[in-house]
Design a protein that fits this description.
The chain is built from two helices and no strands. With 139 residues, it is mostly helical.
């Protein structure tokens, strides 16, 4: 009987080793799959890091660009204020020209009342002289 027991034990252990060998093959395949997945992750991570580095480089320049934009806005504000003052001056000059045009227009009109008011003495003297001349001619 000892020989049967030893043969059974040998078969038992051979089967166990075969099961272990199958398990090792399965683990080996899973390990290869995991290595492939890690390789893909490494590639994806490299692409991600490249994009992240590019973004960080742009962000590093952001304060400098914001400062330039601030300076440009201040310069534009000063230019607009100067333009506003120039427009105010132009508006005041335009108003003065308009007033001059109105004044010249008013002066160009003949106002008989104003003329009579300013020249009544001359008119009265001229009429008196005309009357005296007419009376002298008629006599």
């Amino acid at each position: 009987m000892p020989d049967t027991n030893a043969a059974c034990n040998t078969l038992y252990y051979e089967e166990k080793f075969k099961n272990l060998d199958d398990k090792l093959d399965g683990y080996s395949k899973r390990l290869c799959t995991l290595q492939d997945d890690l390789t893909e992750l490494d590639k994806s991570f490299s692409v991600y890091m490249e994009g992240t580095n590019l973004t960080l480089e742009r962000l590093i320049n952001l304060p400098e660009n914001i400062e330039k934009l601030t300076v440009s806005c201040k310069e534009m504000r000063c230019s607009m204020e100067n333009l506003h003052h120039g427009l105010d001056d132009t508006n005041s000059k335009l108003s003065a020209v308009q007033n001059d045009i109105v004044k010249i227009d008013e002066e160009g009109k003949f106002n008989i009342r104003l003329w009579l008011k300013n020249n009544w003495v001359s008119i009265l003297l001229a009429l008196s002289a005309l009357a005296a001349t007419g009376a002298a001619v008629l006599k």
